[in-house]
Amino acid sequence: MSTIEDLLAADPSLLLVDDDAAFLTRLERAMARRGFEVRIAGTVAAGLAAVSERPPAYAVVDLRLEDGNGLDVVSALHQKRPEARAVVLTGYGNIATAVTAVKLGAMDYLSKPADADDVINALLATGEDKPEPPENPMSADRVRWEHIQRVYELCDRNVSETARRLNMHRRTLQRILAKRAPR
């Protein structure tokens, strides 16, 4: 297998698109230390502009951004540079969006929080070898908690509406919301 340096020798350009500034900064530093030439964007519009200006060889794009859907950036990148390798990151993973991301040209679909090694493994994996499973995947309890939090936010933090949509008793939901996130 080739080393990261060998794979990046041809074109190390990487576009990171995420509206979480702290996460974006950490990932930018980590990827730059690993040899990528990193550009960042905090919105779909900025991501589309970066793709239009100079399509990168690699991209890591958050699915849900404040001004739209990150899949628009993946689609634009695939149209401008079909051989580009993109990975979609999200805190709200589901099968339908994973399938859509792959159809639009993404190489992989990772759940947040993903570390730089997980991202590199996904970006550089070839069709023959699958990336290694993450060292510390989210527990089933954490995935459940993330889903409940997402629905709660989508219901404008209305406990009764969230409980109804999740088919759960309101008091049970209140207890879950009062606890800390599981690991």
Structurally, the number of domains stands at 2
CATH superfamily of the largest domain: Response regulator
Strands ordered across the widest β-sheet: 2-1-3-6-7
Under the CATH scheme, the architecture of the largest domain is: 3-Layer(aba) Sandwich
What does this structure look like?
This protein has 183 residues and is of the alpha/beta class. The protein folds into two domains: 4-124, Response regulator (Rossmann fold, 3-Layer(aba) Sandwich), CATH 3.40.50; 140-178, Arc Repressor Mutant, subunit A. The chain is built from nine helices and seven strands; from the N terminus they run H-E-H-E-H-E-E-E-H-E-H-E-H-H-H-H. The chain has helices at residues 4-8, 21-33, 44-53, 71-80, 95-103, 116-124, 140-154, 159-166, 170-178, and strands at residues 13-17, 37-41, 58-62, 64-65, 68-69, 85-90, 106-111. A five-stranded parallel sheet has the order 2-1-3-6-7, sandwiched between helices. Strands 4-5 form a two-stranded antiparallel ribbon. The longest helix is centred in the last third of the chain and has 15 residues, at 140-154. The model has no long low-confidence stretch (mean pLDDT 82).
